[in-house]
């Protein structure tokens, strides 16, 4: 209750956050439900950031319904805390050597190159979001 900001993160498995994250959210958000006025949760405004990582590409989002998934989680946090920012890290590298697994649909060399370039940029964006969150606090 004393935090000014909250960072939530989950990999996306089978088009959903992990079971652990779902369990956490159920317990975390329940305390703020207002059964007298459901549109007015009992929570205080906080800065919220969601970080989602996933193996799929952005081109797969429409087919998998990911735009709606992220909007749902963003909307939930906005309802309870007033705001929410989302950082997506897509097309992530699952393993170092794709040839050792049944992952033939993926180009392991392309995944490695993306990991070295785009994932590094995603990490920098996450760092900058963190600075933005704590800047006013410090």
Describe the structure.
By secondary structure, the chain is α/β, with parallel strands linked by helices. It has a single domain (5-134), classed as Rossmann fold (3-Layer(aba) Sandwich). It contains four helices and three strands. It has helices at residues 19-30, 61-64, 66-81, 108-134; strands spanning 5-11, 47-53, 85-89. Strands 1-2-3 form a three-stranded parallel beta sheet, sandwiched between helices. It is globular, with a radius of gyration of 17 Å. The protein starts with a strand and ends with a helix.
**How far from one another are the termini?**
18 Å
CATH topology: Rossmann fold
Q: Structural class, from helix and strand content?
A: alpha/beta
Stretches with pLDDT under 50, minimum 5 residues: none
Number of helices: 4
Query: What is the helical fraction, as a range of percent?
Result: 40-55%
Strand content: 5-15%
Whole-number total of structural domains: 1
Most strands sheet? 3 strands, parallel
**How much is the radius of gyration in Å?**
17 Å
H and E order: EHEHHEH
Number of strands: 3
Coarse shape: globular
CATH class: Alpha Beta
Strand order of the largest sheet: 1-2-3
Mean pLDDT, as a whole number?
94
Q: At CATH's second level, what is the architecture?
A: 3-Layer(aba) Sandwich
């Amino acid at each position: 209750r004393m935090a000014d900001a909250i960072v939530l993160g989950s990999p996306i498995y089978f088009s959903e956050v992990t079971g652990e994250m779902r369990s956490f959210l159920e317990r975390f958000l329940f305390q703020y439900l207002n059964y007298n006025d459901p549109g007015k949760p009992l929570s205080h405004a906080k800065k919220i950031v969601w970080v989602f990582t996933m193996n799929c590409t952005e081109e797969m989002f429409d087919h998998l319904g990911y735009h709606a998934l992220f909007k749902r989680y963003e909307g939930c946090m906005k309802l309870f805390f007033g705001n929410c920012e989302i950082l997506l890290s897509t097309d992530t590298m699952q393993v170092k050597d794709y040839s050792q697994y049944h992952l033939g649909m993926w180009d392991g060399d392309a995944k490695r190159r993306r990991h070295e370039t785009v994932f590094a940029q995603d990490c920098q964006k996450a760092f900058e979001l963190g600075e933005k969150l704590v800047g006013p606090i410090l």
